[in-house]
Amino acid sequence: MESESGCEMGDIRVLEIKESVFADNDKRAEELRAELKEKGVFLLNLMSSPGSGKTTTLLRTIEALKDEFKIGVMEADIDSDVDARVIAESGVKSIQLHTGGMCHLDAEMTRQGVEGLEVGDVELAILENVGNLVCPAEFDTGASKNAMILSVPEGHDKPLKYPLMFQICDVVLINKIDVLPYFDFDMELVEQYVHKRNPDARVIPICAKTGEGIDVWAQWLRNEIANWRG
């Protein structure tokens, strides 16, 4: 038998590497966070499942804040540059990150994105992570704050089914509230479930399509940036 690094089982050697991989990523994330802090770049990691309205929410966010902050966006996808092109039309700096089939970004991948974005003239960098409620939550990207979007059609039970995502997020945006009358979605219950996973998380109902609630979300982000700057 081996200790820590693995164990011998007949002719098969089994290595327990998950912990060391995450530990290495956490170290790289802390280093990246410190570097961005020194450069004055606030990095927001935006996560959600596909189809929740990330890109539309991001466009509304840019519209609300682009006159106050120099914004840069990193769009992460397994393939295509569709979202990066859409964001670029808003007038902010935008690059596409291809993950090579991986369903998340880790700290080193985020660092490569930051270098590609050339953040020398960026104050607010936003990483639109790969659409997934599992993998992105497992890897610290080095972000200043984590945000996620839960859309009404997905159901109010998602904080129970995907606990880690809600545990690591500082704010949860409940999007597509314009369709609440058509879905069995309980706003009070979802807030209870979110706070069961993370008592400190802010829950903000929005409709990215109509703009409802975006002012509240934008003010939350302003406050967080101001606090981060000290």
What does this structure look like?
This protein is α/β, with parallel strands linked by helices. It contains 9 helices and 9 strands. Helix 2 packs across helix 9 (214-229). The longest helix has 22 residues, at 18-39. The chain is globular. The N and C termini lie far apart (51 Å).
Describe, in short, the structure shown.
By secondary structure, the chain is of the alpha/beta class. Helices cover 40% and strands 21% of the residues. The protein has a seven-stranded parallel β-sheet with strand order 5-4-6-3-7-8-9, sandwiched between helices. A two-stranded antiparallel sheet has the order 1-2.
List its traits.
230 residues; alpha/beta; seven-stranded parallel sheet; two-stranded antiparallel sheet; disordered N terminus
Q: Report the principal-axis shape.
A: globular
Cα(first) to Cα(last) distance is: 51 Å
> How are the strands of the largest sheet arranged?
5-4-6-3-7-8-9
Structural class: alpha/beta
Annotation field: number of helices: 9
- Radius of gyration using CA atoms only: 19 Å
Helix fraction by DSSP (H/I, runs of at least 4): 40-55%
Q: Which residues sit in consecutive blocks of at least 5 with pLDDT less than 50?
A: 1-10
Secondary-structure element order, N to C:
EEHEHEHEHEHEHHEHEH
Average pLDDT score: 90
Beta strand count: 9
Report the sheet-strand fraction.
15-25%
| Largest sheet properties | 7 strands, parallel
